[in-house]
Amino acid sequence: MSATAGPRRNLFNLQPLDATTPSPLFQRRRVAVGEETGHEANILHLEEDLSATMSLGNAVCQRCNDGFKMDEQIVNSSGLWHTYCFVCAQCFQPFPEGRFFEFEGRKYCEHDFCVLFAPSCGKCGEFISGRVIKAMNASWHPECFRCFCCAKILADEGFVKNQGRALCKDCNAMEKAKGLGKYFCFKCHSIIDGGHLKWKGEAYHPYHFNCHSCGIELKEDAREKDGELYCLRCHDKMGIPICGACRRPIEERVVHALGKTWHVEHFVCAKCEKPFLGTRHYEKKGLAYCEIHYHQLFGNICFVCNNIINGDVFSAFNKAWCVNHFACSICDKKMSQKTKFFEFDQKPVCKNCYDKFPGELKKRLKKAYDEAVKAGKI
Amino acid sequence: MASKLKKLVDDSKEGSGTELDLVDKGIVNILEIPGFASLKNLTKLVLAHNKISSVPPNIANFLNLEIIVLFNNIIEELPTTLSSLPKLKILNVGMNRLNSLPRGFGACPMLEVLDVTYNNLSENSLPANFFCLDTLRALYMGDNDFEHLPPEIGRLKNLQVLVLRENDLVELPKDMGELTRLRELHIQGNRLTVLPPEMGNLDLVGTKQVFKADGNPWVTPIADQFQVGISHVFDYIRSDTYKFLYGRHIAARADPPPKSVDKSKKISRIKK
Ligand SMILES: [Zn+2]
Ligand SMILES: [Zn+2]
Ligand SMILES: [Zn+2]
Ligand SMILES: [Zn+2]
Ligand SMILES: [Zn+2]
Ligand SMILES: [Zn+2]
Ligand SMILES: [Zn+2]
Ligand SMILES: [Zn+2]
């Protein structure tokens, strides 16, 4: 049997993280400590060591090149110094407690050395002595360099650069999944390339689960019922209604309409596709409509008052009128279904009004009418 | 005559007092209708087929007016106060002698149906704010003198009915394509040769829709499509072939066809 789980882990390009980079401060301090004398310079008395340093009479100060007076205190620290010459190259003050730091042949007090040469942390801004994490074009205390998303310390595990942020590899995978519009498996922490399974609010590879009933490894079409997961076949066997729109089982409220069952949010107006959510719907030829669209489509809005017609509907010329408003469009004389009327720009005109039209207009209307008849349009 | 009118007004008052129909009563001056000023609750005023030559500005005092019909009178000008009627929904001033609509008319807040059929209106006689009338669902402008329809027509988003029958239109603006609620369009008897391809957006094909376009000097390819049916016309103007031809046609800037109709006999023209 060959393993199949191996290659998934190599999805990330871990950035090289030079965790061993020491700060310059760290280096110098080591130099100082490395000398037997520790941090403190050795102070000699000339007379005492005369025998030891035979050439002392010719000796000169490392800094000013002058000789030493007899009986003068001399500092011995990689060469001999007047005590007043053995000072910080920056502030010219003696070194507190004799501690100093060397850099390029000069000696500094700790304060000035830090100010001048020590890196400061990209997060907290403090100087870094000891281990320095160099990453993302800055230096960091190991405990300050953390994942942008989950704040995990990254010093030892490494990190991934993601849109200018340092992320741990889990968070990076998650971000990447989000960017691709894909899900990130809550169990194995990798991108879900195929379909995912939602379970208690998290996404998973479906193959992490098995059907509660038959035990088969689940696919993305698995269904939840009463807190358990089932394969589609077992789920269907349990007699769950299927939505007439999306063909998926209905687990919450069921709407019964048009001889079918529906998800509440999938029982919608055939015209505007807004769900009825319990409001009244109107049926026509196997479709359901909201009030506005039913009347708009089936012509039952009065052309005059623009209201939905509840009682009798008078229709003509692709328009509808309520009982109160079916009248001559010119003189407002009420008409009935039997009244003879003329068409003028698709509006009803009673005979009286039509007779009052100027002759030249009647001539034009007649001509248009005759042509329409000839063309078979009427 | 006056006593007869007075009786009609009194009848109206005895009723609800909200509707006054005085059709074909020989009325010359609205202000001379006896007792008219007292009908403060009027919602509907129908004065079709009279001899009215002007509408008094104080019509605006009838704050409840919803419907005004002045069809077939001899009105040459409407008062600017008309647009301040807060509830006016239907205004029918067809078959008059209007050469313009009043300044600020577009401010009518509730106007749904405007009928200015059979007057002497053109694109030059509309007030600047005319196309602010975005509550309009029907606009009747047949038998007028429009040669160009202003592109602002596209702002009348609620328009369901647009009648431009027998004007002098030589072209339609591409903005017509924005009138997506339109289900009735009358453009017959104009001087149109092409349709903007944008009109392909409109849904005017079907048993619930009306599209009348006869009596225009269409270019041959469009005329051919009309022969087979309206749905073919709309399919055709949506095609890339047509978009190309249309672009070339517009670029060529050919002279529009001449006016073919003599309108001097229109009663809207006659001056006494
Ligand atoms: Zn730090
Ligand atoms: Zn993380
Ligand atoms: Zn997984
Ligand atoms: Zn199963
Ligand atoms: Zn559904
Ligand atoms: Zn609807
Ligand atoms: Zn009505
Ligand atoms: Zn009538």
Give the gist of this structure:
The complex is a heterodimer of chains A (378) and B (272). Chain A has 378 residues and is of the alpha+beta class. In chain A, 17% of the residues lie in helices and 19% in strands.
Number of domains of chain B: 1
What's the arrangement of strands in the largest beta sheet of chain A? 1-2-3
* Neighbour order of strands in the largest sheet of chain B: 1-2-3-4-5-6-7-8-9
Globular, elongated, flat, extended or rod-shaped: what is the shape of chain B? elongated
Mean pLDDT of chain B: 93
CATH class of chain B equals: Alpha Beta
Can you give the mean pLDDT of chain A?
A: 79
Could you tell me how far the N terminus lies from the C terminus of chain A, measured between alpha carbons in angstroms? 81 Å
Percentage of β-strand residues of chain B: 5-15%
In this structure, how is the largest beta sheet of chain B organized? 9 strands, parallel
Give the oligomeric state: heterodimer
CATH superfamily of chain B: Ribonuclease Inhibitor
Helical content of chain B stands at 10-25%
- Indicate the radius of gyration of chain B in whole angstroms: 21 Å
Q: What is the H-and-E element order of chain A?
A: HEEEEEHEEEEHEEEEEEHEEEEHEEEEHH
Low-confidence segments of chain B, given as residue ranges, are: none
Q: Which hetero ligands occur in this complex?
A: zinc ion
**Major beta-sheet overview of chain A:** 3 strands, antiparallel
Q: From the helix content, strand content and strand pairing of chain B, which structural class follows?
A: alpha/beta
> How much β-strand is present in the residues of chain A?
15-25%
Pfam family, one (chain B): LRR_4
InterPro entries (chain B): Leu-rich_rpt, Leu-rich_rpt_4, Leu-rich_rpt_typical-subtyp, LRR_dom_sf, LRR_domain-containing, LRR_R13L4/SHOC2-like
Protein name (chain B): Ras suppressor protein 1
Keywords (chain B): Leucine-rich repeat, Repeat
